What does this fold into?
Amino acid sequence: MDALESRFLQYVNKNDDCWLWTGHVDKSGYGHFRMDNATHRSHRVAYILWIGEVPDGTVVHHKCAQKNCVRPDHLQVVTPQENTAEMLERKHYLARIKELEQKLDEAYQLVEELLEDKW
Ligand SMILES: [Zn+2]
It folds into this structure.
């Protein structure tokens, strides 16, 4: 293990699932790591450290949707277009889940009302 890797690992909390970044996290939820007098996004550093170079024109994407996760097998390089498409899809699902939760609330309310009538 080289010095960079062991320094990096000081900020990593390895769980069974995601490896969460315990160092500085920016406003948008990405971990930050200082290297060569510059700040880098920690998931990018993790990718370069454990998988390899990030090809030009691609971004490192989280398959697990956990922005501060640095587990290499949760990361993949995608073109920005792919990343946006997946994000939009996720947003769509979240909106749909919210909708369904609301419906469920209404249903519970209805059941309560019905029970009140009965008793
Ligand atoms: Zn993860």
User: Anything to note?
Assistant: The chain has two domains: 1-78, 79-119. The chain has three helices and six strands. Residues 1-78 form a domain with the Homing Intron 3 (I-Ppo) Encoded Endonuclease; Chain A fold (CATH 3.90.75.20).
